[in-house]
Amino acid sequence: MFTGIIEGLGTVAKLRSSGRGKRLAVTADFELRGMKIGDSIAVNGACLTAVMISANRFEADLSPETLFRTTLNKAKPGERVNLERALRISDRLDGHLVSGHIDGIGTLTGREDADNSVIISIAVPESLSRYVIPKGSVAVDGISLTVNDCSHDRFSVSIIPHTSKLTTLGFKKKGEVVNIEADMIGKYVERFVQRADGGHKKDSGKNAGVDRGLLLKSGFI
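The chain above was modelled as a monomer; its predicted structure follows.
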């Protein structure tokens, strides 16, 4: 688990094919003190497992699924990336709970200065936008952000100077792509209230459990 509070930046040092996957090497701007092989680290929000560590450099394998779901399939040597090591139970949760399991890819559609912040607009497919709500949480390239507003195919967030300085959103340009992870609570709620289909039979009677009708009747939606 992660918090979406970026620890620092890193640079893609090398990327080579490994079967249908790839091996990624990243040089961090900070020393990876205390980190060991097998530990998790989020690279632009994608949870990866370190398989080699040396001072401030680590390597991780990218599975075909990771390459399909994230922007790491287009990563190139020299590219700057956001880094966050896994959350420790003793840490303060300054952002929100982030799993590092990317839901999909968004595209920056605009940047607008607004007093001491920058408003960034991001286009996303409707399969992602359904989980984004005003004032809810979203992780963009691993950065925990609060949603300003949203529609069926996009949302906007405010980037303060501190976030702009310490993350890649400070220099991302219009048209560039970013990894998106929606707040996991919404996905779990949707799963609970979905009507069973396919090979699953719907429960009936008193054992029907939680469904949309019950939530409406109880005033939750």
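DSSP finds five helices and twelve strands in the chain.
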